[in-house]
Amino acid sequence: MNQLLQWDQTLFKDLQTFESDYIPDRFLFRDEQIKELSYNLRPALTGCSPVNTVCRGLPGTGKTSCVRRLFSEAEGYTKRLAAVYVNCQIDRTPFSIFSKVYQKVSGVRAAPAGLSYNNLVSAAAKKIAEEKRVVLLCLDDVNYIQNRDAMNTTLFTALRLHQEYEGVRVGIFAIVSDVHRDLSAGLNAGVLSSFRPAEVYFPPYSAEEMHDIYQARIFQGVYPNVISGDILDYIVDLSMKTGDLRVGLDLIRRSVMSAENDARTSVTEGDVNQAFTFSKDVHVNETLKTLKPGERHLFDLIGEMNREAADRGNTDGVTSGQVQRRAKDELNIGYTYFFEYIKKLEELRLVDVVRRDGVHGRMSYVEVRG
Ligand SMILES: Nc1ncnc2c1ncn2[C@@H]1O[C@H](COP(=O)(O)OP(=O)(O)OP(=O)(O)O)[C@@H](O)[C@H]1O
């Protein structure tokens, strides 16, 4: 029989290692990306302009963590660098983005109230010039910036600041989770000519890579023998279904907690299954955030149609043709866009398109995953 856990006993060596913002000491399988990012950042360490960069990859491929880790290392190396991290899901306007720059370079907690955008930028630029600092501005989830105008204004201000304020250097690291999105679409010629970013691609992890990353995290955060080799393989299998590394990290945390709650000293398959009903949403929630409005509406329609079919007792599901007709009538999505959007939803592992026999013969059915 398993030894009972006392109230103050825990199976976690360090629960922090499973927090969503935890930055691991070692990034496995990201040497190439870290090398490229370091190369692009390096000029900033000697007071020169860093190379503007776009980090691109599906959610959970390590973009944010790699950049944040690099920023903290680089800032430890020289005070000249002001690395400003902005989450554009939260700060979506040029004013709020430059407030972050101002706060960083002036060391205050908030920009003075009532300042106009131009005065805010000017105050930040004077501070940067005075202290001869280089600003590296990371715009995470850059596609969340309010609209095209806001994107153009933000980039234009940052990249042309040196023209008005001598000696000021600003570089941009933009992070985008949509592997298809062309960031240059919608940018003004003036912005494009100074932006011209290098691209660093973060590919999805294979099952073997996920396994090794989880193993390292378990070693850091959980006591030995709590998660057996078989259970770890099972966690990898479930995570691979979503393709999102974060699902497995969440699964580990939840299933260890579940074992702990039951006063057991090891995780069972039942703990993992129970945890998966919650953890799989980590993937869906993060991925939905990356969709454009049309893609999101189509995804919602597919869910709605599948639910309606189930309510009618139709076990066949909905065909691609049925979805396409309703997408045209209700969402005004034409034939070409429909197939483009479906392909993307499939690539993001949000839906499956399965060819199988139904009442009308062999057809393609569209199902929501999970
Ligand atoms: N190579 C890796 N080694 C160890 N941990 C990793 C690695 N890649 C990602 N992680 C972990 O996975 C989680 C998600 O990573 P991160 O937030 O950096 O992904 P992302 O690509 O920025 O996702 P999003 O696009 O949604 O912001 C974090 O907890 C991070 O520590």
UniProtKB/TrEMBL annotation:
PANTHER family: CELL DIVISION CONTROL PROTEIN 6 HOMOLOG, CELL DIVISION CONTROL PROTEIN 6-RELATED. ATP binds at T61, G62, K63, T64, S65, Y205, R217. Keywords: ATP-binding, DNA replication, Nucleotide-binding. Involved in regulation of DNA replication. Residues 212-276 form the Cdc6 AAA+ ATPase-type lid domain. Residues 26-159 form the Orc1-like AAA ATPase domain. The lineage of its organism: Archaea, Methanobacteriati, Methanobacteriota, Stenosarchaea group, Methanomicrobia. GO terms for biological process: DNA replication. One of its GO terms (molecular function) is ATP binding. The keyword Nucleotide-binding applies. It comes from Methanochimaera problematica. This is ORC1-type DNA replication protein. Belongs to the CDC6/cdc18 family.
